């Protein structure tokens, strides 16, 4: 690692470690920016990733998307170009060197104007249409990310400088190795854009029975083309995607609203309690009652030890 690469990284470590003084996931005063600190590894947790740039400055993480596993750590970034339900796990962390990361939501509505400014041909092609990818962090992207973090210490600068830093981050991503993913997601009538519309519909209507032919027609695609491109982008079939949305929402309902398994399963669209329990256990590794009980016990123990720690899903 060269000096020009290590110095910005150390500054990023210093900023995140100072602001995230305790383990947890923190929304910051910079709109769209969150920072994360964890001093130990943990079980896989469900998560909903939105279009975003995630950078690990210390430690490592693995994300399970469908049947694929992506692993990334310091010197990598994770680019997500479409809403995706995943399982994630901090895989490298210790009290001496905690896992430290930042995530910044991408405003995809800004990309068309950026492409008009730099030319649509400037975005490099990608060998895969997948909506999530890991790549090496470049010095230019790292420098822009550091300037984003520095705004946390300069709140008076946020209103003026955030749009400029965000523009540069988007520019670096668009001209990077996975820029075509962002370009295609915002190009009307492109197949990724059509799949994005289908995903938005599924997120809003996940509890309804799913008719593939109706959804394909809704986004102006044939059933066979819709199936092919949906799986190519999300690593899941539409039914698998819907199932993950349902199971994640059911788990949230049980944890946050304290619904029992029967009510939670019914609310997200399951007519059969036994089917819900089977699919829940297959996805999360244990039946609903046992999983929720374990998570609650873990939270009680954690909060009693770190009463002032902030946490987010």
- What's the helix count? 12
The helix/strand class is alpha+beta
- CATH architecture label name of the largest domain: Sandwich
Question: What is the CATH first-level class name of the largest domain?
Answer: Mainly Beta
Q: Please estimate the helix content.
A: 40-55%
Strand order of the largest sheet: 1-2-9-4-7-10
Strand content: 15-25%
Radius of gyration of CA atoms, rounded to a whole number:
20 Å
Distance between the termini: 33 Å
Order of helices and strands: HEEEEEEEEEHEHHHHHHHHHH
Describe the main β-sheet briefly. Answer: 6 strands, antiparallel
Low-confidence stretches: 1-5, 302-313
**What is the residue-averaged pLDDT?**
89
CATH superfamily of the largest domain: Jelly Rolls
Number of strands: 10
User: The CATH topology of the largest domain is what?
Assistant: Jelly Rolls
Short key terms for the protein model shown above:
disordered N terminus, 10 strands, disordered C terminus, Arc Repressor Mutant, subunit A, single chain, 313 residues, 19% strand, 4-stranded antiparallel beta sheet, Jelly Rolls, globular, alpha+beta
Write the layout of secondary structure elements.
Elements (H helix, E strand, L loop, with lengths): L2 H17 L4 E4 L5 E6 L6 E5 L2 E7 L1 E6 L2 E6 L2 E5 L3 E9 L6 E7 L5 H8 L13 E5 L2 H12 L7 H17 L4 H7 L5 H14 L7 H7 L4 H12 L3 H19 L4 H7 L5 H12 L3 H18 L8
Antiparallel strand pairs: 1-2, 2-9, 3-8, 4-7, 4-9, 5-6, 5-8, 7-10
Helix pairs in contact: 1-3, 3-4, 9-10
């Amino acid at each position: 690692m060269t000096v020009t690469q290590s110095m910005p990284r150390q500054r990023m470590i210093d900023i995140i470690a100072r602001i995230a003084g305790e383990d947890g996931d923190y929304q910051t005063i910079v709109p769209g920016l969150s920072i994360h600190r964890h001093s130990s590894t943990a079980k896989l947790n469900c998560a909903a990733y939105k279009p975003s740039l995630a950078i690990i400055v210390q430690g490592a993480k693995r994300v399970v998307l469908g049947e694929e596993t992506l692993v990334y750590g310091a010197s990598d970034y994770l680019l997500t170009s479409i809403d995706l339900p995943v399982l994630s796990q901090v895989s490298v962390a210790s009290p001496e060197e905690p896992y430290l990361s930042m995530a910044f939501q991408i405003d995809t509505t800004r990309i068309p104007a950026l492409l008009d400014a730099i030319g649509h041909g400037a975005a490099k092609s990608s060998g895969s249409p997948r909506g999530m990818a890991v790549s090496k962090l470049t010095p230019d992207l790292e420098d822009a990310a550091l300037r984003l973090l520095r705004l946390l210490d300069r709140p008076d600068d946020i209103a003026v400088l955030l749009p400029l830093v965000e523009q540069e981050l988007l520019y670096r991503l668009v001209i990077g190795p996975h820029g075509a993913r962002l370009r295609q997601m915002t190009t009307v009538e492109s197949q990724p854009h059509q799949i994005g519309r289908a995903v938005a519909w599924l997120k809003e209507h996940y509890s309804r029975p799913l008719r593939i032919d109706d959804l394909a027609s809704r986004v102006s695609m044939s059933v066979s083309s819709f199936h092919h491109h949906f799986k190519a982008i999300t690593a899941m079939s539409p039914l698998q995607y819907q199932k993950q949305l349902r199971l994640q929402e059911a788990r949230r309902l049980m944890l946050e609203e304290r619904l029992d398994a029967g009510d939670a399963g019914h609310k997200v669209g399951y007519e059969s309690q036994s089917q819900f329990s089977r699919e829940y256990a297959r996805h999360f590794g244990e039946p609903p009652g046992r999983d929720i009980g374990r998570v609650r016990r873990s939270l009680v123990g954690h909060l009693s030890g770190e009463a002032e720690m902030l946490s987010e899903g």
